[in-house]
Amino acid sequence: MAQPPRQRPGAWVPLVLLLLAGPATCAASPADDGAGPGGRGPRGRARGDAGADEAVPRHDSSYGTFAGEFYDLRYLSEEGYPFPTAPPVDPFAKIKVDDCGKTKGCFRYGKPGCNAETCDYFLSYRMIGADVEFELSADTDGWVAVGFSSDKKMGGDDVMACVHDDNGRVRIQHFYNVGQWAKEIQRNPARDEEGVFENNRVTCRFKRPVNVPRDETIVDLHLSWYYLFAWGPAIQGSITRHDIDSPPTSERVVSIYKYEDIFMPSAAYQTFSSPFCLLLIVALTFYLLMGTP
């Protein structure tokens, strides 16, 4: 009877080795070298590539090491600062005086021909939707303000002031004149506020609504009012008495719907325009002419 052919002892060796190697192969992580398709490692680098191990950094498997490396990459700049540099703040846009009398109304007080950067006091206003935008500037390191009054006298007036504080900021505040004293009002109608202190000048820009609920301390700007112009020093962010004894005012009531460019000479440039000085000049001229043979 024929016996079946005998298996060679070495025929089982490859099969045994394959079974032993299978679990190790299946347990390999996709992040290990050679785990990717086509025999490629992490990020598709091929086995045996020259410098591949040096090009791809090794990471510790611990969470702490990963978090530290992530923080270094995301939050440390080349200079080593712990946080990114904040974006620059938009600078204060300069006040345009070329638009005065055209697209906005302006008041200038000071030297003839002065502008928003050289006048003793400057104010502009213009309508923007349901708001009025005001721009104020004065030659002071304290505060600059405009008051809305039913007459030309201080008392019972709605006042908006731009105040330079000890921290270098310019804040928009709301006041109500009680006689000769300005009382701060917490209800502030200002919005879109911005201000700057440069070259010993306080300059600001803000909006306030044309129509407001009836209130003794806030006026409706759709009505016409006398404008009171004032500026002066501040102590620790609090306003003090204005610089001049008789601050300028508008000659007539102002309508926000009418744009004019009005100039008012300061006291230094009013010398030869006063009636007394004109009379003196006429008398002196007459005396000289009569005394001449």
Automatic annotation (TrEMBL):
<dbReference type="GO" id="GO:0045505">
    <property type="term" value="F:dynein intermediate chain binding"/>
</dbReference>
<keyword id="KW-0732">Signal</keyword>
<feature type="transmembrane region" description="Helical">
    <location>
        <begin position="272"/>
        <end position="290"/>
    </location>
</feature>
<feature type="signal peptide">
    <location>
        <begin position="1"/>
        <end position="28"/>
    </location>
</feature>
<dbReference type="GO" id="GO:0044877">
    <property type="term" value="F:protein-containing complex binding"/>
</dbReference>
<keyword id="KW-0472">Membrane</keyword>
<dbReference type="Pfam" id="PF03351">
    <property type="entry name" value="DOMON"/>
</dbReference>
<keyword id="KW-1133">Transmembrane helix</keyword>
<feature type="domain" description="DOMON">
    <location>
        <begin position="119"/>
        <end position="234"/>
    </location>
</feature>
<dbReference type="GO" id="GO:0051966">
    <property type="term" value="P:regulation of synaptic transmission, glutamatergic"/>
</dbReference>
<dbReference type="GO" id="GO:0099072">
    <property type="term" value="P:regulation of postsynaptic membrane neurotransmitter receptor levels"/>
</dbReference>
<dbReference type="GO" id="GO:0005789">
    <property type="term" value="C:endoplasmic reticulum membrane"/>
</dbReference>
<dbReference type="GO" id="GO:1900449">
    <property type="term" value="P:regulation of glutamate receptor signaling pathway"/>
</dbReference>
<dbReference type="GO" id="GO:0098794">
    <property type="term" value="C:postsynapse"/>
</dbReference>
<dbReference type="GO" id="GO:1904717">
    <property type="term" value="P:regulation of AMPA glutamate receptor clustering"/>
</dbReference>
<keyword id="KW-0812">Transmembrane</keyword>
<feature type="compositionally biased region" description="Basic and acidic residues">
    <location>
        <begin position="46"/>
        <end position="61"/>
    </location>
</feature>
<dbReference type="InterPro" id="IPR042789">
    <property type="entry name" value="FRRS1L"/>
</dbReference>
<feature type="region of interest" description="Disordered">
    <location>
        <begin position="29"/>
        <end position="61"/>
    </location>
</feature>
<protein>
    <submittedName>
        <fullName>Ferric chelate reductase 1 like</fullName>
    </submittedName>
</protein>
<dbReference type="InterPro" id="IPR005018">
    <property type="entry name" value="DOMON_domain"/>
</dbReference>
